[in-house]
Design brief:
- The structure is a homodimer of 495-residue chains.
- Chain A contains 20 helices and 3 strands.
- With 495 residues, chain A is mostly helical.
- Chain A folds into 2 domains: 92 residues; 350 residues, Orthogonal Bundle (Neurolysin, domain 3).
- The first copy, chain A, has a 3-stranded mixed beta sheet.
- Chain A is globular and about 65 Å long.
- The N and C termini of chain A lie far apart (62 Å).
- In chain A, 42% of the residues are buried.
- At the A-B interface, helix 1 and helix 2 of A face helix 1 and helix 2 of B.
Chain lengths: 495, 495
Amino acid sequence: MNAYKQLEARQKRMAALGNALGILNWDQATMMATGAAPARAEVMSELSVLRHEMTVDPRMGDLLDEAEAGDGLDNWQSANLKKMRRQYIHATSISADLVARKSRLTSETEMAWREARPANDFATLAPMLEETFEILREEAAGLSQTLGVSPYEALLDGYDEGRTEAEIDVVFDDLEAFLPGFLNEVLEKQASAAAPKPLEGPFPVETQRKVARQIMEIIGFPFEHGRLDDSHHPFCGGAEGDIRITSRYLEHDFLSGLYAIVHETGHALYENGLPKEWRGQPVGEAQGMTLHESQSLLLEMQAGRTKEFIGHISPLLAEAFPRGDAWEIENVMKHYRKIERGLIRVDADEVTYPLHIILRYRLEKAVLAGDLKAVDLPGAWNEMMQNLVGITPPSDVDGVMQDVHWPAGLFGYFPTYSLGAMTAAQMFAAATTAEPGIFPGLAQGDFKPLFGWLDKNVRSLGSSLSAGDLIEQATGAPLSAAAYKAHVKARYLDA
Amino acid sequence: MNAYKQLEARQKRMAALGNALGILNWDQATMMATGAAPARAEVMSELSVLRHEMTVDPRMGDLLDEAEAGDGLDNWQSANLKKMRRQYIHATSISADLVARKSRLTSETEMAWREARPANDFATLAPMLEETFEILREEAAGLSQTLGVSPYEALLDGYDEGRTEAEIDVVFDDLEAFLPGFLNEVLEKQASAAAPKPLEGPFPVETQRKVARQIMEIIGFPFEHGRLDDSHHPFCGGAEGDIRITSRYLEHDFLSGLYAIVHETGHALYENGLPKEWRGQPVGEAQGMTLHESQSLLLEMQAGRTKEFIGHISPLLAEAFPRGDAWEIENVMKHYRKIERGLIRVDADEVTYPLHIILRYRLEKAVLAGDLKAVDLPGAWNEMMQNLVGITPPSDVDGVMQDVHWPAGLFGYFPTYSLGAMTAAQMFAAATTAEPGIFPGLAQGDFKPLFGWLDKNVRSLGSSLSAGDLIEQATGAPLSAAAYKAHVKARYLDA
């Protein structure tokens, strides 16, 4: 067996461990009895360590060298080999000691965050957070050298391979110039409009569960290759060929729960549409988090909120939860068009959301560069929040302590949320231009025209192209905020 | 780290893979969408191969030699080391080629059996079955040399370590002399007795599920460390510290479904009672299938069918499924005391069951010795069935083709069912003699007195003793059919 084929065999085995971990993780969140948690943690830790050892096995390095020196690989195989090398670099550029320190410290800091948050006690958290930042600086410095990119890009690379700060800045600078003024305009317009007819609870949970499943069936969730279950936090997980999404249901809130399911269904359909012949290989995996988020947001925020699709599902909703004529399309759309200056990212609407992300992006870059200390974060946060969103958090609970990402040691993760939203808008615009059948399809609950475009231009490509190249090839232009801006203008000002 | 500690670390990792496989297997039977089956099969196969490679790793042999040459191990560690050596012998005594041929051939033969069975076509199955037998002869010959036991014992060793043919013969010869005559007596007595008041369906499945859970709670199934779900065939699986049992419910048949759950709960409580400090090590595992089956049958056939326990649960059953006074203790007991000359092992009552096993034991020994060919099995089967149970199968579907075991290449497995039944009777007799609180406890749904005895004498011992030694230590006598004979006499003749 030549070196490349040997690498494929090794990857297949690592993927099997990854798939097993995916199901174990799903099971832990949905099925497992609580008393089994310590035993499960041990099993998952052993499997993770085993997979890591396979990744950093020196023989991998030899095989990679050998395969790269050879020839005769087709485009996909070459892309696959490139991904393997990237993973190898990520796994081996950092010393085992640093990995161990980071793992220990971030779990401690995350635990400290869980305690400090309800007490609004940032002062206690700050020193541990600073230690975590110090580790991240060390990690970024090491990776940055091997990858030949900036320290921030080195961390970003773990979530969105090859993404550059320059690309992000083009988008975020544009948004920062546009959104605050736009937000004023929208709020002014909304203040003068009549309130929508109420769509209030209770929405019985069992009925919500049934409706969620119906909507997933309409969209085309592959129930022969996956499941829907309950968990505390919605997620899309499972394994290759076996996509498990979860949701939770609040009796007083139906619409946001419904769209959480549409969101996860978008993730699921991306996973399910990845090239089956490349399962178990890096090139067959989803291409990073910006693209993943673009696929969930394309369903949740673009296709799922067109008047065509709302019109298709509103009779179903009206039957499940009778509220007179409040389910009329325009009224439903008024509900989810509600824009607010909010403090909390996860509750933010699509207009203010990018501002939350820009704030985090600017701050974590300053932290990484050593220009900002943990202890100074609350002040910097609150000031920037006022500048960008126009409000100041009354406490750190609603400010710097709201997200788990930094205590958990995740830097470079936040930008992918908004890059995903920009990508979703740009792709939906390109798709609906290229395929006139998409809107009429949505009006009948037929996603085939849209999914035909997505299958061809996104899902079936796996990781064979970088996210940037894929977006450009699919939409004819590099990623920008233009489509998103046009989208929010049309939805919030022109409508 | 010394050799023994290194072996422990390796075992822990193999156990993690085993536990992951346990959950994946459970998920496959209960949760997984059907379309995910091929992907799941690949994942499970990769993990199994990985575990096998760890087992046969030559370094294991070196470490075993080194650890065995050392000293300073306590009793449990020594027992652990002995188990590791035994597993190593089993995994390495057979060539990789034989393992591969056996795996391929037995899956083909099992598939052929699935097709031949509905067509009652033994003639087509026979040649493949003979090939499977030939492989089993080869495997037994190889293992027999390394283990220094008879070829049949070599196969038996995979299910019930250290069990000898002599031990089985003592029990089975006794049963063969006793049961046919006893069966005549019981049937004569039953023929002259009045039929019990009927306990007929429909029993709504949802209510059965609820009652099953209630009964499990009464017995003490550890729901904080496990689950009950539905599957086609009831089983007890999952992982260490996370026991998953399953059942299925038939609307027309409640009692047998209920006792299937009590049976699986017995398996679950054995697993749950294994020594937690030895989790992940061979000595912390259940000690073979005879003991495992003894623990399920002790609940199902002994404690669960005492008039004390029936009396405790009959009000609950009467409330769930109102049938007038048919739930009175004596009437329920009449129902499950019904004895029949049946053709099918899995439907057999506790009196005829051992006869089905003796038949299989005699035949598979003859096959292994080369004294019986596959093609002659139907004739031999039918003749022995007539001699032992007193009826002749009208077709091979109800005869030699009823079980999957032989097509699947499982020889030496059958005896453990009846050795388990004998062990259950012997243990229950010993426990109730030693602990006067057991019967009063059962009358109040309190299993603590019984489980105190089982925890001390069985569960907490893991694999630190051989099954034979454990039984003798627990009951004061080597395994025999005496307690079982006394039990069936009391239940079916004296009652």
